[in-house]
Amino acid sequence: MAEQPDRKQKENRKNDRRSPKRLGEQLISGGVINENQLQQVLKRQAQVGGHLGSLLIEMGFVDIEELLEYLRMKFQVPAVNLFKQKIERGVLGLIPMEKLETYNILPLTDDGQVVTLAMINPQDFTAINEVEFLLGRKVKPVVVPAFMMKAALEHLRSDVSCQIDGQALAELVALEKGTDSPKLSSLLRYLIKSQANDMLICAGAPPSLKMGNKLKRLALPSLSPKDCEGYAYELMSKQGWDIFRRAGDYGFSAVYKGIGRFRITAYRQRGSVSIAIRPILDNVPSLEQLNLPQWLADYALRPTGLILICGPAGHGKSTTLAAMVDIINSRRGCNIISLEDPVEYLHKHKRSNICQREIGSDSPSFVEGLRNIFRQAPDVIVIGEMRDRETFRIALQAAGSGHLVLSTAHADSATAVIERVINMFEPYEQALIRTMLSDSLLLSLSQRLVPKQQEPGRVLALEKLINTHRLRKFIREGKTHQIRAQMQTGTEDFTSIDIDLARLCRQGRISFEDGLMFCEDKGFFRELVESNSDS
User: Fold this and answer.
1) Is residue 285 part of a domain?
2) Cα(220)–Cα(312) distance, integer angstroms
3) How many other β-carbons are positioned within 10 Å of the β-carbon of residue 466?
4) CATH at residue 86
5) Do 487 and 503 fall into the same domain?
6) Is the pTM of this model over 0.70?
7) Rounded Cα distance, 527 and 307, in Å
8) For the segment 53-62, what is each residue's pLDDT rounded down to a tens digit?
């Protein structure tokens, strides 16, 4: 007779799982919701489908902690809040994506013997048995709300190589719940938490992230021209808005309390406003963190000369420049003056004094700022970007007259930037400019940020040109193009980007395909990688 109540309890639990109404009645009896709320949820469920618990959250009738406690009691296993978890890429890669989606499961942790498995239904023994067979070890099931599982799987589906950060996931879910365009502060917080390189806002498309070299659109409605203009107006000061309305594009930096600093570029296209937003780190990264060689510090500490950093937009030129400035600031006692558009990294006074001037607010242009800079007693001059003939002219004069000048420029290679500088000038001036450049140039760098092979993020590949006596002769005689041909295999004073890409590929840090995409000479790169493999 004692077995009869047990059977009845089992039957009741079985009915509980099958009947949403029965489950709702349990919540009513526990005082979590009332009858009217249950009827609203059941009506919503009949219209759109979905799980009762997730709909209760969506409609605001229960909070997450109440739902987790209910799920724990129902299934008699731990209930986990995915929004407070951080799941590493290696753990997520244990189970193929198709299995995760088929069974609505997610591995949380792996201690080598037991895998903790998040499930919507922890009593799905078919899924548990298959995962145990697949992994060859025991599975410990835990329950998570369906809406959390859906958000996590959608996040993974957009980039199967990523990790899951619970806070960023919660922010995205909050964004998706909004029927109107998301608040700017929510977008900025999500940008920081996602660790993306940029957020792109453009009419006709959802807010998008640049993750490494890939574009990822958020699961949000497309933005209207009015949305984009509203964001731009909110981001800018009144003075900035007036400049933008007149010029059609405007670059600036902004600080949002409790969120972070951002470099922002707004521009008009097809009658609407587009915005590119880049987060700026609070601390300047070290050479080691950037995968830059330590010998760069020796050149940063030289008293005079010109250092050029080149490469495509978005490949870390400004960050490399900031790291070299921080070395000077930390180790020399001198006066550093920078001209930036806009100011990105904020440098504090260390051993040096450092004054950072923003183009547009502190100086009308690079040229105007440089024309007056010699009266400001600089020892080191930092130019955010050299864009025109006059800027280059003054920079060369400064480097040749007892100042250290550091700057970035857009060019494909460490040799191409030299020719770009020279070709900016009229033919009758080029011989003089060649001489000035050959005398003052210390170092030319070209860099690429390449996706890592084994983990999220990008790694820096570097091309160097150190202006030794023999390279100075090449520059002065207009034979810069011969440097690459004669020193292809690498020397102490010149190492091509292909050689560094091949090194990263051999170390397993980047894939062969990505190396091939970023190299200059595909045949030479392939030869470098394959010759090492054969040996």
Assistant:
1) no
2) 30
3) 18
4) 3.30.300.160
5) no
6) no
7) 31
8) 767 766 767 7
